[in-house]
Amino acid sequence: MRIAISGIGIISALGAGASRTIEALSAARSGISSSTAIVSSHLELPAGEIPLTNEQLALKLGIDGKRIISRTALLGAIAASEALDNARCGKDRRIALISGTSIGGMDLTELFEKDSGKGPFSRLRYVRMHDCASSTRFIADHCGITGYTSTISTACSSAMNAIIAGARLIRHNIADTVIAGGTDALSLFTLNGFNSLGILDCNVCRPFDRNRNGLNLGEAAAYLVLQREDVLDSDPYCYLEGWGNANDAYHQTASSPNGDGAYMAMKKALETSGLETGRIDAIIAHGTGTPNNDAAETQAFVNLFGSNIPPFISTKAYTGHTLAASGSLNAVIACLCIKHGFLPASLNFNNPMDEGLPVPQSTFNNKIRIRNMLTNAFGFGGNCSSIILSAQ
Amino acid sequence: MEELILEFKKHLIEELNLEDLNPENIDNDAPLFGEGLGLDSIDALEILLILERKYGIKLRNSADAKAIFKSVRTIAEYIRDNRQK
Amino acid sequence: MIELNCYIRGSLSSVQASADIKKLIPDAMLRRRISGITREAVSTGLECAARAGLPLDAIITATGWGCLAESEKFLNGFKESDEMSASPSAFMQSTFNSVGSYLAQVLHCHEYNMTYVNRGHSFEDAVLDAAMLIEDNEAANVLLGSYDELTPSQYGIMERMGFWRKYQSGAGAAFMVLSKEKGSNCLARLSGMEFNCENMSEAGVAGRFNCNMDNGELIYINNQMFPVASSIGFVQAADRISSGTGKVVIYNEFPGERPVISILECI
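Output (structure tokens, whole complex):
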């Protein structure tokens, strides 16, 4: 039984919706700005911020802008409802929702903490949405989903794992349609967290470049509609043919030098798809721009593909690293690449890394025919996941 | 100097959760990272915070850090020469 | 009802756990950052795995609220320093998947690794995932568990929200090993789960599943405002079945959520 991707929804620093995303990718236009405006921080760091306030996001959803709803939930509802509309899903479908997030309602919890000078008068409405599942519940309610819902948090591989979990629900006939993806808003918590780890670049990130110096944070939500092949309501973008989940089991935050977890996740994805390495036409890498990730990931490419590494790119210099959403963000972009026959340029690449390591594709290619595309998402805690999306 | 070394070791044990060690077990001249004590990149960042919070030293240039962070003694010497508090 | 067929071959709650973490994790450098609820969960998981004595090929963890104490520590740290400095260790430990990650590191398990964070049903989501993984032959023995802590500030917030007038509080960790084969140490068989059930009374559940209440055949959870409650229920159910009860139905109605029912049977 094949699992089709019949709908996609996305909101990131590149804009809301698939067409804005394609426009920016085609024009090699980054959405990263020199500092954050909406998340007001003392840290002057570039970030992929969505230039809409929570009130504006709420209005986009047609709900009262004065309601206190976490930004993670608002972004998630925008992208998930776009995906559902895009798939033109019949009302009688058994629809499930699996959402990944790493930050949940932390943006509101920060306001609660700010409020805490007021002691017992700090406003409880700010912590009501703290837990991760509350964003999933909000999205489900907004989209009218009454079936199975779940929330996954495996750091930056969360959304990719949501897609993998969604595929399993369909295979086991627990749902025939699954909205799967992830959402993460920018927050002071993550800005300060990644800053404390010393892995934020104070310039726009340079994935796979010898002089890369860290990542930029971003915010996004991206969802895919997975459907069993025989219940499709529209022409699918592509099929989910392979998936792999593995653990690096090396360190809480650092990747093993050899990229063992990355290698295993990609290899498992190839195995479930039944494809040989030579059949992969392009890769959207995790490619964060940190010295550690990019070295480990390219080493894993070498170990898996030998000297025939397919063209690969990173999208991080367009959107920033959107954490829990990054896996489904790349998966949505992969759907667009397969359907429209293009591969974006990997931005800000100038100098190859060490000898023997491959270089990303740094020019826009709109003549490529992609039959099978591999997409990666790796997270803290060694969580590594990969999927393979294939044309009809 | 010996006093400063002891004090720094106590901070190290506290902030890096080296609960199984006491100051006598830490060799003043052994490498802190990789071989020797076996600290990692997160510990390096925590040591930067110790220097900042306890001694008022802001060490921003990571090229210098490598030489300074060689051993407990090299760090203590750096603290002695650069401390603001 | 989703029909399932796999075997519980180890179960342990943090209350039952007794092994010394120094024996479970001999590497002091790996052990040193594991503290608080992470320590409780990791040591319960490792002891559960050691008792089952099976080669593990997947690790699935579940938590409703995650590592709250570390999150609070980090949040307060950067607020107090006005975003000038913050401890990377606290940030690193605050992630929801840190327990699953430490288990993978200690057990050298490079295989499937997942973390569910779905309030009071996180553990059931993990159980369903494990059972499907086993049915797909992607794993033969899955270590899965749930953990949650209750920090003073969270207790205070939930008190202000009025929860403790209606519900019980709690915290802890519980782990199981779920397997494809019965083996010689099987405690119970997982035969089915049902998500998104209607709310039912205790007598209603007992009637539907023909449970003998005197025999402990129903574990009815409806006023426990702590997500780890149902995983502790699973451990109790496995214990009861291994000491002679024919089946146990676990009804988990987390406040504000649709109930989930799980059925364990003797082998």
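The two ends of chain A are 14 Å apart (CA to CA).
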